[in-house]
Write a structure and sequence with these properties.
Layout lengths: L1 H17 L21 E3 L5 E3 L7 E7 L4 H17 L3 E7 L4 H11 L6 E3 L7 H5 L8 E4 L5 E4 L3 H7 L1
Parallel strand pairs: 3-4, 4-5
Antiparallel strand pairs: 1-2, 3-6, 6-7
Length: 163
């Protein structure tokens, strides 16, 4: 009888706890399979563009900052890889730096092309930084021609397989 009561209590506890299990992904921004939201991009001259203007093309969007060594290295690798293979992919590099002069010097040192570089001078205070939950780490996205996220945190090695 003791074992029956123990089993019933264990089953009851299991049934109660299973109702609180969430099967959705934790909220860390946007995920593959979702449509990327509209992003307003500002280039270094202050001109504004919308991400939707690139619809119809595959796009790699990379979020980074000059003060984050890992994200900066990823940005350089993605830029150089896409430039080298001459793929039919638009590269969009979005930096979160409040000081444009530092960004300009970094671009020169890293040999980055200005046409693919955009900046959010509000840095960590920007809506874009908050919406994509970038406080948990900078990331990159591969987006298809319809604006659907194909992959996240892509590397040149990933792109060589996907593209």
């Amino acid at each position: 009888m003791k074992y029956v009561n123990f089993c019933l209590i264990a089953l009851f506890s299991l049934a109660l706890s299973s109702g609180s299990v969430k099967d959705a992904a934790p909220s860390l921004g946007y995920y593959p399979g979702e449509i990327i939201p509209e992003i307003v991009l500002t280039d270094l001259e202050g001109d504004k563009y919308k991400l939707s203007e690139f619809k119809g093309n595959k796009v790699v969007v990379n979020f980074w900052a000059t003060y984050d060594a890992h994200s900066r290295a990823t940005n350089i690798r993605l830029h150089n890889y896409l430039k080298m293979i001459s793929a039919d992919v638009t590269f969009i590099s979005i930096a979160f730096d409040e000081n444009i002069n530092v960004l300009d010097r970094t671009m020169a040192m890293d040999n980055l092309d200005a046409p693919s570089l955009f900046c959010d001078v509000r840095g960590t205070e920007s809506d874009l930084y908050r919406d994509f939950k970038l406080s948990r780490g900078f990331r990159s996205y591969l987006i298809d021609e319809n604006g659907v996220i194909i992959a996240m945190n892509v590397t040149p090695e990933d792109l060589s397989i996907i593209l």
